[in-house]
Write a structure and sequence with these properties.
Blueprint (H helix, E strand, L loop, with lengths): L9 H20 L4 H8 L3 H9 L6 H11 L13 H10 L14
Helix pairs in contact: 1-3, 2-3
Amino acid sequence: MSRVSRPVLPATRRRVEALGERLRLARLRRRMSQSEMATRTNTSRLTISRLERGEPSVGLAVLTRVLGVLGLEDHLDLIAQDDPLGQRLEDLALKRPRRSGRDKAEP
């Protein structure tokens, strides 16, 4: 039984492809072949190739192992580190403090 492939938004696809390219370049800078990366991450060369092409179906576990082999595992901490939209939504949902009768201006 094959998996159903879900569509990815074009902007997201471009980002995933750019990530794959950055991972490929990081691997090449370390003079490592796809086969060696596959062996060190306990996956197949085809999976490494799919990750580097930016196929979004490659699992997060593979990505984390690749980052570990490249010495970039600390970069995971940067994902969603800041959440300005979430903070703004949370701030808008906070109730404003009630003003007491003493704070109102006298007529």
